[in-house]
Amino acid sequence: MKMKLGWLVVTVMVLNLSSPCSAWFGFGNKQKTSKNSILPAQPSIINRAAHGSSIIIPLYGNVYPVGFYNVTLNIGQPPRSYFLDVDTGSDLTWLQCDAPCSHCSETPHPLYKPSNDFVPCKDPLCASLQPSDDYECESPDQCDYQIDYADQYSTLGALVNDVYLLNFTNDVQLKVRMALGCGYDQTFSPSYHPLDGILGIGRGKTSLVSQLNGQGLVQNVVGHCLSSQGGGYVFFGNVYGSFRVSWTPMSSTDSKHYSAGPAELAFGGKKSRSGSLTVLFDTGSSYTYFNSKAYKALISWLKKELHKVPISVAADDQTLPICWRGKKPFQSIREVKRYFKPLALTFSNAGKVKTLFEIPLEGYLILSNMGNVCLGILNGSEVGLGDLNIIGDISMQDKVMVFDNEKHLIGWAPADCTRLPRSRAFGISSY
Question: Active-site residues (predicted)?
Answer without folding.
Answer: 87, 282
